[in-house]
Design a protein that fits this description.
disordered N terminus; about 50% helix; six-stranded mixed sheet; single chain; binds iron/sulfur cluster; alpha+beta; about 300 residues; two-stranded antiparallel sheet
Length: about 300
């Protein structure tokens, strides 16, 4: 595998904190990180981003109202999403493609925020909302900057008893459901847990494809948390060394939807990966045809 040494990134070195989103981008694809942070060629906002951000903003306002003891109507939830979605589209000056169905997306967002309200608003006990934290980790010079979506008092049973621990929650808009183990293996939630000093964590997953709400509660075990922090240290080390290795084939996050698709050296590698995957499919399809033909002949001769 080729290793490209890139100019020293100014990002992490220049700031007095480490941005979690920067680490996250590197983990998704080091080349994405290189284009975005080192060359400064930032991906423009797109509809997905605006959608997620409008859901977050609407739920943030709802949570703050709950903290202030105000009762909410379903109309509040719908109007809030609509307001943030439309404002962001205007402000970000998005180029809307023919395939972008804005009214459909708006309806989906309204329904999802409404659903979240229905499932959570009457039971959630918010203690902090969108709270900024600087998390210090052993062996890392600078603190990690995080915004924790929600810290709540736990009204739920945990390990057979009513827990008094706080729960940290991250709200996700996603096209897929999450697995039950996702929270316990998440670096983001490991950092949230460290910031708040708890081990209970959850994702509130709003599935925009299915239009469903899925709360996934997990426990951050100290050994897993230590493993995740160790991975964090190694990622940081790689960024500081300027190492920029494309993701391993098979783990490849590339699709033509990637903003850097046209200019990225990675686009050459996926061609090879896709080509061999295509050949493999054809080979398997060929074998299946052969087997079908053989079983037909066997039936005829029987
Ligand atoms: S095209 Fe692939 S390798 Fe290149 S930046 Fe995008 S995801 Fe990364």
């Amino acid at each position: 595998m080729e290793i490209n040494l890139v100019p020293e990134t100014e990002t992490i070195k220049a700031r007095d904190y480490i941005s979690f989103s920067e680490i996250r981008k590197y983990e998704i694809c080091p080349l994405k990180h290189y284009y975005h942070y080192v060359l400064g060629d930032k991906e423009p906002a797109d509809l997905n981003l605006v959608f997620g951000s409008a859901v977050h903003s609407a739920i943030e306002v709802l949570l703050r109202s709950i903290m202030d003891g105000k009762s909410l109507t379903h109309g509040d939830a719908s109007n809030l999403f609509r307001h943030f979605f439309q404002t962001e589209i205007k402000e970000k000056d998005l180029s809307i493609g023919a395939e972008d169905n804005i009214p459909h997306l708006e309806r989906t967002g309204v329904n999802l925020v409404y659903l979240w309200c229905l499932e959570r608003a009457s039971t959630v006990l918010p203690v902090q909302v969108e709270q900024k934290y600087l998390v210090t980790l052993p062996g890392i010079e600078k603190p990690v900057l995080m915004y924790v979506d929600l810290v709540e008092a736990n009204g739920e049973m945990f390990e057979g008893r009513a827990s008094t621990d706080l729960v940290v929650t991250d709200i996700k808009t996603s096209k897929t459901d999450y697995a039950l183990h996702n929270p316990s293996l998440s670096l983001q939630l490991a950092l949230y847990c460290k910031a708040v000093g708890t081990r209970l964590c959850r994702f509130d997953v709003l599935n925009k494809k299915k239009g469903t709400f899925q709360p996934v509660l997990g426990v951050m075990y100290p050994s897993v948390q230590e493993y995740l922090f160790d991975r964090f240290r190694k990622t940081l080390e790689s960024i500081n060394l300027g190492i920029c290795i494309p993701p391993a084939p098979g783990e490849w996050p590339c699709t033509p939807n990637c903003y850097y698709w046209s200019k990225c050296a990675g686009t050459k590698i996926p061609d090879i990966v896709f080509e061999s995957a295509r050949e493999e499919k054809l080979r398997i399809a060929g074998l299946k045809e052969l087997l079908k033909a053989k079983s037909k002949t066997r039936r005829k001769t029987a």
